[in-house]
Amino acid sequence: MYNFLLDLTSENDKEKSIYFTGADSFITEMWNEIIQKNWRQLYVRKFIPQQFKVSCGEFYSYKNGKKRISIRNMYQLTQAWRRLCDKNEQEFLRKWDEIFNEKLLLSTHSKCQKTSLPRYISPKLSYLLGWLCGDGNLQYGKNRYLIKISEKSKEQLEKIIKPLFQELFGVNPQIYLRYGKGYAIQIGSKPIYNFFTKIMKIKVGEIPAIINEFDLVNKKYFLIRIFDSEGYVNATYQNSRIIITQAKKVFLKTLIRLFNEQGFYFNGPLKQRNNLGEWYRIDLRRKLEIVRYARCIGSCHIDKLRKLSQLVDTIEKNWGSKFTLASRKSS
Question: Residue 40's CB: how many other CB atoms inside 10 A?
Fold first, then answer.
């Protein structure tokens, strides 16, 4: 993944900026080199306020690790280090990438919001992105940044989704009982919110363009999550189905293309309608393809994996015996 640190914030993002925790060694190293090479001509009391828009005392608090430095001020320091220490473009980029790859903790003014952000695309991140596209809720208002995932199964949130946030972002989200049916995981974090919306370009109810850049393994885990959230299994032998529904037809058309890349060809999208409204569905009907789907794609949803396994057992029993994928050409 590219060095996205600057894209997490904007130049006008002053009061609710994003800050590094533990960056004092980088600050000390670059500042000492700046002073060593420019001690005769550099007037520190003027330079620091002009360069960083903070007082000398505040800047030295960054250097001593007593205060956290914003991403923007860290970038300005790195630019000053390049300019005043005669560094070339490659040295500058190498230093900025070194800061990026250190995986320093990020936060806003609130010290309880410290988090790390993923530096590369992984199956676990791809799976979580899929949850946000389907059952996610990304809200911003009055300097409040909210990431929320809803799910009927509390066990799914406790055993699958919550551990993903803990591993990928170093946070411990709470699980809430929703008003009505189901549960939700909820996190208030500007760094995580901006990572999803500004870097991953996630919008709820849409498949993000960044998915096209994923390899087949990461696309697979994104698709697993789509099924885990939007799909269900018809487990009767005569009407065996793997079904995925969505309100947006274009969402399912993109999904069909992604499944085609994995070697699976869904029917649809087909319009559905009842007294509550209208929506669309795609499905996989051939019994051999359902078995192959279960083995090659599968599910990470505790309840749906159980139903998918039951359907495969039902199909295999009605075939008369266990079979290999090559044993039959069609259902």
Answer: 5
Which domains does the chain carry?
Answer: 5-113 (no CATH), 123-204 (3.10.28.10), 216-319 (3.10.28.10)
Q: How far is 131 from 114, CA to CA, in rounded Å?
A: 23
What is residue 239's predicted lDDT score, i.e. its pLDDT? 87
Rounded to 5 degrees, what are φ and ψ at 279? -155, -175
Question: What three-state secondary structure class fits 141?
Answer: strand
Listing from the earlier edge strand, what are the strands of the sheet with 69-70?
69-70, 19-21, 105-107
Distances in Å between the alpha carbon of 299 and those of 91, 123, 182? 45, 13, 20
pLDDT digits (tens, 9 = 90+) for 203-217: 988 899 999 999 999
pLDDT digits (tens, 9 = 90+) for 217-237: 999 999 998 999 888 898 888
Residue 258 has pLDDT above 60, yes or no: yes
